[in-house]
Amino acid sequence: MAAAKIKILAITGSTRKNSSNFRILNYISNHLDSKFEVEIFEDIDQLPHFNPGLDNQNPPTEIDSFRNKIINADGIIICTPEYVFSLPGSLKNALEWCVSTTIFSNKKTGLITASASGEMGHEQLLLVMKTLEAKFDATTELLIQGVRGKVNDKGEIVSVETAEALQNFIKNFENHFL
User: Fold this and answer.
1) Among 53, 74, 55, which residue's Cα sits nearest to residue 10?
2) What homologous superfamily is domain 6-175 in, according to CATH?
3) Taking 90 as the threshold, does the pLDDT of residue 68 lie above it?
4) DSSP class of 79
5) Of 57, 38, 55, residue with least CA distance to 94
6) Are 137 and 129 within 8 A, CB to CB?
7) What is the pLDDT confidence band of residue 1, given thresholds at 50, 70 and 90?
8) pTM value?
9) 3-state class (DSSP) for residue 67
10) Four-point Cα dihedral 159, 161, 162, 167, nearest 10
11) How far apart are alpha carbons 150 and 170 in whole angstroms?
């Protein structure tokens, strides 16, 4: 009997289809060990606006579905751009729906900010995920600056430095499950 695969939910913080962030998650998905099964969540723009009045009593079905994906995953990878020196509103919105839960508590997590600059957005991502009690460390977080020149339209990593950084990220993320 084959061992169950390690389920990873990969969340793209970009609402653009075939974004650099999606391409990076796809690259990671294709380079993770065969023990891993990755689902890339691209529908972050379909989640309703956070409403604390609906948060616990009667969350929208899209939120129940999103939360269940997180609950059922063994690990999470988030790859996001930075918009106006911050997290994209759609990603922040999705994470706000999780604040009143414990679904990220001790969940093995990888965090990537891939943007033009990304420094401030990355700091905010780390802070939000620390607040949600996600389990990550310096080896499972990565800032990729100038991403558009490092990933082509086919999803190929055209920067040797970025390819090496992603390979290290993948190896370190996998090691958290071994």
Assistant:
1) 74
2) Flavodoxin domain (3.40.50.360)
3) yes
4) E
5) 55
6) no
7) low
8) 0.97
9) helix
10) 120
11) 17
